[in-house]
Design a protein that fits this description.
Layout (H helix, E strand, L loop, with lengths): L1 H24 L12 H21 L2 H12 L6 H11 L3 H23 L3 H33 L1
Helix pairs in contact: 2-3, 3-5, 4-6, 5-6
């Protein structure tokens, strides 16, 4: 009898812990139009990607729309961050802007695909966003991170 109670307590604990973890994956981002630094915006976009992931895996098109809209509407870079990125990248700044535009435009298309409940288009647009993010990171992240650390 004691072993059965221990097993029940363990199962309840695991269920509660799973609920806490899953709830944390879908929390709403802070509503702000204030400018932010690049690491903060990247963390927000990462959370939006997680929302889209959850929506894809659960076929919840509303979550996919929510995540895509948030990517497209994230707050702008702060003036300090913009200046640092421009100074760091110099004549490569247009390439950075192209990645940003690609991700934003595709997030908008992803939002529309989710509104249409078109999972094939959702997956196509999501793959473009992922590739755009990874390509931008490979091209610029280390350099911008070093410049940011040096500036601090």
């Amino acid at each position: 009898m004691l072993q059965i109670m221990k097993n029940q307590i363990t199962v309840i604990f695991i269920l509660l812990l799973s609920g806490v973890i899953l709830t944390g994956l879908t929390f709403n981002e802070p509503e702000t139009k204030d400018s932010l630094d690049l690491p903060t915006i990247m963390r927000l976009i990462y959370m939006d990607i997680q929302t889209i992931n959850e929506g894809i895996y659960t076929e919840n098109f509303a979550l996919i729309e929510q995540g895509a809209a948030a990517i497209n509407e994230h707050p702008p870079l702060s003036d300090e961050t913009t200046a640092l990125v421009k100074k760091t990248l110099g004549d490569r700044m247009p390439a950075f802007g192209q990645y940003d535009k690609l991700v934003h435009d595709t997030a908008d298309s992803l939002k529309h695909a989710a509104a249409d409940h078109d999972m094939e288009r959702v997956l196509e647009k999501y793959q473009i966003i992922q590739q755009g993010c990874v390509s931008c990171h490979l091209s610029f992240r280390n350099e911008i991170t070093r410049a940011r650390i040096t500036a601090e």
